[in-house]
């Protein structure tokens, strides 16, 4: 934007030229064409001063010469000229209708009005830079101490606008883009400046002028500029004081009882509790029924106690040093746990459900998880506009600025399949990280600048002014209700103690903490204020404090009687009716995952057709659909068709299926095509799977943004909401999960152990050495297997169904299917199991089109199921005692081994056994295979390098099955990279390990 120069100089230099051009011919002035703002209001900062005055002279000649918005602007300016102050209407002045006014005087009138309008805009754009935001009075809340020169802080700077001290008492017409006048259209300049400073330079700083929507900007201006709009009633002030008492005294109580315990208290930002309650109150008033929250550990216990309303005795019980992990039911600490609670909102008398998500110390990792769970609840409630379910995310300032997942989450906020219709972000801005000064922690002026990428308004507020905080929270809730967009509240506060209560902050921030030690507590300051106003008496305040202290003492006494912590008090995502009341599955069996041939055929027919009429599809896609139809007639299924049948059959049973990830609609390898696009009509598309059955569940397939961390977290949260849904995330290539490793480590692998939270999310990770180089070859199976918790040295003993019992004991399931039928069955088993575990599937690339990698309907019909280990069914299995070698393998390498065996004519001498399920390790089936080939040597063959893949996982487990017969490794040598980038080297490695696998003579002396 071109800033408006001081108009006096501009007018003097250009007025003679413009007067010479008036009347020489009409020029149509269109603001949208000639100014850079792109809006239809007069925007002074967007246009040069000479252009504005040129427009004015053209308007005098003919009002139609300018855009209608400027026509109205100039008409208003004339109508409001002050006769009392000696001014004449502008047209009279500039057209010479009074001989007493000179051209210079007429220019001064235009100049002064435009200058005042520029001044107003300057406050709207940059007023937050001089707002009094820091409670400590040390910093300016941003990292830029420069005060914009166009903000008036002293009378001598009026000259920068071409104004003089005598102009302070002159009245000026207010533009349509401000509400500081209330019901008045004109104000003296002195009052204009006063009202602007009150609105934008007090304890609240508002960033919003970067938003490119006029309606939204005007809405915010009205909320902050209207005189007297920030007033609170006596009742509202008393409620605020009571909430502040609870927040403050809760922290004081914990400090007295457990002075040496880490609790990551809220001291220094106690106003967070009444702030959250205000947001919830206003949202409940607008119709919100469920609020899902995420936050770091600082202040979590206080939020649990005073916002979610977790029983205090349950919180205090967790401080018991004798409490064991088994009693706690958790592998994580109390300030990481969450809770789900339905209660009455006292301010609205409406039911509201509050859910605080459990979160590890990876501070912002919970952000997309909360968004996913919110989206799921909206989906299952039919809340298509976010009117009933919403999310609140709390952040620390250092993490909000520093963690990339914050940016990823913001960029999901308005994508059709990921939007939650507006999230309220509350930044607890301690103005410090762990021990790191903000100047070393971020490059942006504010920690909240990342929110500008999605045009979210940012409300900075001094946390030691509770009423300012409440007002900002009220407006944030109204913004979310009105516009369904994200909004950020920056609570500028401080951290009274160190990173934790045992930490010494003076080591690194001596000046800040000297000031903090002198800082009066916000509760005392606000109580004194209300007492002085006569809103409450000292006695009433002391009674409120005593009442809450008594509640805490009684809960503390009660906590001594707690024997076992109740699970219901810290589950953030309960699944009513899925488990028995004691939390155990309702059964420990899994029905057949096969389907009737009629169902398979029907799904196949839809998958090979276009349900919509007059729908033009790509010619190449027509060929693919014909190929699918041909497979149906032959009773066969490839990988894509088997997936179609698994998804479609679950939809028939009312199971929602959601597939998300980069390019999943078509599939990275152009095999899936679940969304058909009309080649003639833009944005016309068809999802055939949603046309399978009447009254079927909805199939959601959605291409995601180019994000793994954020999107996988989102889908994890979506899967938390409902056990009766198949939620799948597919990586574009398997190794892309690297950038989502935090979600995998902190939530998926350990989620049940830490928080007793089942989750059935499915990860589809394309994997396989295809000679394409180290990138995108390996999905890193060794990482998942390392985190599998089954004991390699103990053979499990079960009295019931071995497969189901073992799955129930594991932390997740890892499979590498070699057939479409296996893929079909494992997807269906994921839902038919009576519990939920994460499922990791290493999916193929070359097998998608390999003719040998197809399955007959016979492997998928009623009575069939997922086979954890596929035994050899060739000649070797007929005479197992003659078999010299058994090759165990998994996935794609089976087909290369089978091809090599056939060429060498070793079908009778070598058996090949496939592990479809790798973890939990199928001890029972492997034992049966080893005993079947009792005279054979055992080898494990993999295409991955020896230090990767599966060998380190399977070797000790094979020894547990058969200690006297070790299993030998055949595959690529150890390496640093997952694969070679040289095609010739790749083929040479493949030939070498295939030769080794079938070189019986070399095997006998172990020389390989």
TrEMBL record:
<keyword id="KW-0560">Oxidoreductase</keyword>
<dbReference type="GO" id="GO:0004591">
    <property type="term" value="F:oxoglutarate dehydrogenase (succinyl-transferring) activity"/>
</dbReference>
<dbReference type="InterPro" id="IPR029061">
    <property type="entry name" value="THDP-binding"/>
</dbReference>
<keyword id="KW-0496">Mitochondrion</keyword>
<dbReference type="InterPro" id="IPR001017">
    <property type="entry name" value="DH_E1"/>
</dbReference>
<dbReference type="Pfam" id="PF02779">
    <property type="entry name" value="Transket_pyr"/>
</dbReference>
<dbReference type="GO" id="GO:0046872">
    <property type="term" value="F:metal ion binding"/>
</dbReference>
<dbReference type="InterPro" id="IPR032106">
    <property type="entry name" value="2-oxogl_dehyd_N"/>
</dbReference>
<dbReference type="GO" id="GO:0006099">
    <property type="term" value="P:tricarboxylic acid cycle"/>
</dbReference>
<dbReference type="InterPro" id="IPR011603">
    <property type="entry name" value="2oxoglutarate_DH_E1"/>
</dbReference>
<dbReference type="Pfam" id="PF16078">
    <property type="entry name" value="2-oxogl_dehyd_N"/>
</dbReference>
<dbReference type="InterPro" id="IPR005475">
    <property type="entry name" value="Transketolase-like_Pyr-bd"/>
</dbReference>
<keyword id="KW-0106">Calcium</keyword>
<dbReference type="GO" id="GO:0005759">
    <property type="term" value="C:mitochondrial matrix"/>
</dbReference>
<dbReference type="InterPro" id="IPR031717">
    <property type="entry name" value="ODO-1/KGD_C"/>
</dbReference>
<keyword id="KW-0809">Transit peptide</keyword>
<dbReference type="GO" id="GO:0005739">
    <property type="term" value="C:mitochondrion"/>
</dbReference>
<dbReference type="Pfam" id="PF16870">
    <property type="entry name" value="OxoGdeHyase_C"/>
</dbReference>
<keyword id="KW-0479">Metal-binding</keyword>
<keyword id="KW-0324">Glycolysis</keyword>
<dbReference type="GO" id="GO:0045252">
    <property type="term" value="C:oxoglutarate dehydrogenase complex"/>
</dbReference>
<keyword id="KW-0460">Magnesium</keyword>
<dbReference type="GO" id="GO:0006096">
    <property type="term" value="P:glycolytic process"/>
</dbReference>
<keyword id="KW-0786">Thiamine pyrophosphate</keyword>
<comment type="function">
    <text>2-oxoglutarate dehydrogenase (E1-like) component of the 2-oxoglutarate dehydrogenase multienzyme complex (OGDHC) which mediates the decarboxylation of alpha-ketoglutarate in the tricarboxylic acid cycle. The OGDHC complex catalyzes the overall conversion of 2-oxoglutarate to succinyl-CoA and CO(2) while reducing NAD(+) to NADH. The OGDHC complex is mainly active in the mitochondrion. Involved in the inhibition of cell proliferation and in apoptosis.</text>
</comment>
<dbReference type="GO" id="GO:0030976">
    <property type="term" value="F:thiamine pyrophosphate binding"/>
</dbReference>
<feature type="domain" description="Transketolase-like pyrimidine-binding">
    <location>
        <begin position="637"/>
        <end position="850"/>
    </location>
</feature>
<comment type="similarity">
    <text>Belongs to the alpha-ketoglutarate dehydrogenase family.</text>
</comment>
<dbReference type="InterPro" id="IPR042179">
    <property type="entry name" value="KGD_C_sf"/>
</dbReference>
<dbReference type="Pfam" id="PF00676">
    <property type="entry name" value="E1_dh"/>
</dbReference>
<protein>
    <recommendedName>
        <fullName>2-oxoglutarate dehydrogenase-like, mitochondrial</fullName>
        <ecNumber>1.2.4.2</ecNumber>
    </recommendedName>
</protein>
């Amino acid at each position: 934007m071109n800033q408006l120069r001081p108009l006096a100089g501009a007018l003097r230099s250009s007025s003679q030229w413009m007067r010479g051009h008036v009347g020489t011919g009409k020029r149509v002035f269109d603001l949208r064409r000639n100014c850079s703002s792109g809006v239809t209001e007069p925007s002074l900062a967007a246009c040069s001063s000479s252009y504005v005055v040129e427009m004015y002279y053209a308007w005098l000649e003919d009002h139609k010469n300018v855009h209608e918005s400027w026509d109205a602007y100039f008409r208003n300016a004339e109508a409001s000229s002050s006769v009392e102050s000696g001014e004449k209407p502008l047209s009279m002045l500039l057209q010479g209708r009074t001989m007493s006014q000179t051209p210079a005087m007429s220019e001064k009138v235009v100049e002064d009005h435009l200058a005042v309008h520029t001044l107003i805009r300057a406050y709207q754009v940059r007023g937050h830079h001089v707002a009094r935001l820091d409670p400590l009075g040390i910093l300016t809340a941003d990292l830029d101490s420069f005060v914009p020169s166009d903000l008036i802080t002293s009378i001598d700077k009026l000259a920068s606008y071409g104004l003089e001290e005598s102009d302070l008492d002159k009245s000026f017409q207010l533009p349509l883009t401000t509400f500081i006048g209330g019901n008045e259209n004109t104000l003296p300049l002195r009052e204009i400046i006063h009202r602007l400073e009150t609105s934008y330079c007090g304890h609240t700083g508002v960033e919003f002028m970067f938003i490119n929507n006029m309606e939204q900007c005007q809405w915010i201006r009205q909320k902050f500029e209207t005189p007297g709009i920030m007033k609170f009633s006596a009742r509202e002030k008393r409620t605020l004081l009571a909430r502040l008492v609870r927040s403050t005294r809760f922290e004081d109580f914990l400090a007295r009882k457990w002075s040496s315990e880490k609790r990551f208290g809220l001291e220094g930002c106690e106003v967070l509790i009444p702030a959250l309650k205000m947001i919830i109150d206003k949202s409940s008033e607008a119709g919100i029924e469920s609020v899902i929250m995420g936050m770091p550990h600082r202040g979590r216990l206080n939020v649990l106690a005073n916002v979610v309303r977790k029983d205090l005795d349950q919180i205090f019980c967790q401080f018991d040093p004798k409490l064991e992990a088994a009693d706690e039911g958790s592998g994580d600490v109390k300030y990481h746990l969450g809770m789900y609670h339905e209660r009455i909102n006292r301010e609205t008398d409406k039911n509201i459900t509050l859910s605080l998500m459990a979160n590890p110390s990876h501070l912002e990792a919970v952000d997309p998880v909360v968004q996913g769970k919110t989206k799921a609840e909206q989906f299952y409630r039919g809340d298509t506009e976010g009117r009933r379910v919403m999310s609140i995310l709390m952040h620390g300032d250092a993490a909000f600025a520093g963690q990339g997942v914050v940016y990823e989450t913001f960029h999901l906020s308005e994508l059709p399949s990921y939007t939650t219709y507006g999230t309220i972000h509350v930044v607890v801005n301690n103005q410090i990280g762990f021990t790191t000064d903000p100047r070393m922690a971020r490059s942006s002026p504010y920690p909240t600048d990342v929110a500008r990428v999605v045009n979210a308004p940012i409300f900075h507020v001094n946390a030691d002014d509770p009423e300012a905080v409440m007002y900002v929270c009220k407006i944030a809730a109204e913004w979310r209700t009105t516009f369904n967009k994200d909004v950020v509240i920056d609570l500028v506060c401080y951290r009274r103690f160190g990173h934790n209560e045992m930490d010494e902050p003076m080591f690194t921030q001596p000046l800040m903490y000297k000031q903090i030690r002198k800082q009066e507590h916000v509760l005392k300051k606000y109580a004194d204020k209300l007492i002085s106003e006569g809103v409450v008496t000292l006695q009433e305040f002391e009674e409120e404090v005593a009442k809450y202290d008594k509640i805490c003492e009684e809960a503390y006494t009660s906590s001594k009687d707690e024997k076992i912590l109740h699970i219901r008090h810290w589950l953030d995502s309960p699944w009513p009716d899925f488990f028995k009341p004691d939390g155990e599955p309702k059964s420990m069996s899994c029905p057949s995952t096969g389907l009737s041939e009629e169902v398979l055929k029907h799904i196949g027919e839809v998958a090979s057709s276009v349900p919509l009429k007059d729908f033009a599809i790509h010619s190449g896609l027509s060929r693919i659909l014909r190929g699918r139809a041909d497979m149906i007639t032959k009773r066969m299924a490839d990988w894509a068709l088997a997936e179609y049948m698994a998804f479609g059959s679950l939809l028939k049973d009312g199971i929602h299926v959601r597939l998300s990830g980069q390019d999943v609609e078509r599939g990275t390898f152009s095999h899936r095509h679940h969304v058909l696009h009309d080649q003639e009509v833009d944005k016309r598309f068809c999802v055939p799977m949603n046309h399978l059955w009447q009254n079927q569940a909805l199939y959601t397939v959605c291409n995601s943004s180019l994000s793994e961390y954020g999107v996988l977290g989102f889908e994890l949260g979506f899967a938390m909401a409902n056990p009766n849904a198949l939620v799948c995330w597919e990586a574009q290539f398997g190794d892309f999960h690297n950038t989502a490793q935090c979600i995998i480590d902190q939530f998926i692998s350990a989620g049940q152990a830490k928080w007793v939270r089942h989750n059935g999310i499915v990860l589809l990770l394309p994997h396989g050495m295809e000679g394409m180089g180290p990138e995108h070859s390996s999905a890193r199976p060794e990482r998942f297997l390392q985190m599998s918790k089954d004991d390699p040295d103990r053979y499990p003993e079960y009295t019931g169904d071995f497969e189901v019992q073992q799955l129930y004991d594991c932390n997740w399931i890892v499979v590498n299917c070699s057939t479409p039928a296996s893929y079909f069955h494992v997807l269906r088993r994921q839902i038919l199991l009576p519990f939920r575990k994460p499922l990791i599937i290493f999916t193929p690339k070359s097998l998608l089109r390999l003719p040998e990698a197809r399955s007959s309907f016979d492997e998928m019909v009623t009575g069939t199921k997922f086979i954890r280990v596929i035994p050899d069914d060739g000649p070797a299995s007929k005479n197992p005692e003659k078999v010299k070698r058994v090759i165990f393998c998994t996935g794609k390498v089976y087909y290369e081994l089978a091809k090599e065996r056939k060429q060498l004519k070793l079908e009778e001498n070598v058996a090949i056994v496939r592990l479809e399920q790798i973890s939990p390790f199928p001890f029972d089936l492997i034992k049966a295979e080893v005993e079947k080939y009792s005279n054979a040597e055992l080898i494990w063959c993999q295409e991955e390098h020896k230090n990767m893949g599966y060998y380190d996982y399977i070797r000790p487990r094979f020894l547990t099955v058969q200690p006297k017969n070790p299993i030998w490794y055949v595959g690529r040598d150890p390496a640093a990279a997952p694969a070679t980038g040289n095609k010739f080297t790749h083929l040479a490695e493949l030939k070498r390990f295939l030769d080794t696998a079938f070189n019986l003579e070399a095997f006998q002396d172990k020389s390989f």
